Fold this sequence. Notes:
By secondary structure, the protein is mainly β. The chain has strands at 2-6, 9-12, 17-24, 30-38, 45-51, 56-58, 66-71, 76-81, 90-98, 101-104, 108-113. It starts with a strand and ends with a strand.
Amino acid sequence: VQLQASGGGLVQAGGSLRLSCTASGSVFRLNAMGWYRQAPGKQRELVAIIIRSDKTNYADSVKGRFTISRDNAKNTAYLQMNSLKPEDTAVYYCDAIVGGTTYWGQGTLVTVSS
């Protein structure tokens, strides 16, 4: 399973970005996809996750600002990030759980300027 993430960039505070993560390979048992982030000097933390039934879960810090969604036909998860804050600056990683195994994509850098 390979994950390709895209959509990061530089944005001013209050702006928006949308991240995409597409899974390819043996994904017929794709159960959940999620986004994590890691800021400099900090541990990686969960941002949002969506499971096959479209149940979602968010970190408290992003609730009401970020929305995770998925297109099952494309094996793609999206993270719509609105009202971005400087503290959202981090490398964002997507993951996918396929048949009980977790796979990680490469990170995409999101920088929010004040």
